[in-house]
Amino acid sequence: MPKLSERTDVVITNAYLVLESTAINGVSQPMRFTVGMVDNDELDYASIKASELIEYLGYEVSSQELAKTARQTFTFDSSARQHLEDLHDEGKSANLIIRATSASRQQDAKVQWKTRDNDGIVYPQLVIEYIERRKQPLATPENLQATIEDNLVKLSWNNPDSQDWVGTYVVRNNFHPPRSPFDGVKLYAGKDGYTLDRFGNINIPKYYSVFSFDNVPNYSIPATLRFCTDSVTPVIYDEFESQDEEDQRHREGD
Hints:
The chain has helices at about 45-50, 65-70, 80-90, 245-250, and strands at about 10-25, 30-40, 55, 60, 70-75, 95-100, 110-115, 125-130, 140-150, 150-160, 165-175, 185-190, 195, 205-215, 225-230, 230-235.
């Protein structure tokens, strides 16, 4: 697999493998060819024969189709693209193999594949289209505090120090700690380190969550507290898991 970028945060938007046959010999019965990915760095005949395909690419192509159209494109679906991303993030190679199947055993059936064209382009040709963007959320805002100012709840916090930070999102929920930016009433989104709750009744206990976000947007794990007029209590998450599918899609940039 080619090196995509010095950064590990890449999202593959399209990927496909181009194969082109140069000759088909001794194929008396239809044969079908499948391209797939294998989790095996041993590329000798015996290990490849024993390997299981962990991802299939695109579709099968038949020997009849190859006779009509020598060049075939095998497209990575979303699952295969994700697996390719994971390999890139882990610094591993992507190994692709092509297998032939037939309803009957054929002796001396052979398909020759092009390895280079007249322009010097090497085949098989793996084409990857991608964009660079963060996959992981930013750090959680720190030192979240709540005070009463002019009969309003004032929230203040410290924003993360990151060049990818775009802003901070504040949510209020009267019933439970907001676990996503969409789990309550939006109070603020911007670059300041404070905001005022101008619409909440200070006499009613409530929860506030503060999220940092980047330009994808990925939202951080929230800083959360419970507010009532006689106490302010931080909410500590033992293990934070988003309960909002839409929030997860935003985190993943979809």
